[in-house]
Amino acid sequence: MLFRRRRPLKPHQKLAQFVWPRGGWARTSLYYRKRLMRLSDTPHSIAAGFAVGVALAITPFLGFHYLLCLAVAFLVRGNVLAAVLGTSLGNPLTFPFIWLGTFETGSLILGWFGQRPDPIDFDHLAHKLLTDSWREIWPIIEPMLIGAIPIALVLGAISYVLVYMAAKSFQSSRRQRFAVRRSALHGHRRH
Predict the structure, then answer these.
(1) Hey, where are the domains in the chain?
(2) Helices (DSSP H) in 38-133: which residue ranges?
(3) Eight-class DSSP state of 22
(4) What are the pLDDT digits (tens) for 121-174?
């Protein structure tokens, strides 16, 4: 492989690099932003794909985010790679905040209809999720599902608008740069 490491990273080094990238989060996010903007697709397709990824990262379907974003991005004719990049919003650092936000929002919405769930003992949540039946964890999942809907819609819409404007601007300036280079090249050949 052309760009493979001479000495492969050990599992604990891979985990450390995932949690805290060697170049820092600013450099990593800049890389992904450039990667997103340089996709060769329409601004709508890039923005739709990214928005789908962001929206589905909010859902409690842990382990299925990528599969869902690929399917939905395909259905809405969004860019699939942009959808995968958008799904990266859901990661081990953000999931606790996402889950708490969706649970609280869902609890609030259910409370409006007189169905407010019992408080959750978060100390035993992981154990419950791994050992209890679906019937036992439904009181946790239901408010998260319901709460994910408005949060996903809002974040998806915001990310669509921001990525659409950024992609359109980037592609426009890129076309202008190429036109200037092309005209300079053709002007140079005439002499």
Answers:
(1) 43-170
(2) 43-57, 65-75, 80-87, 95-112, 125-131
(3) T
(4) 666 666 666 666 667 777 788 899 999 999 999 999 999 999 999 989 888 887
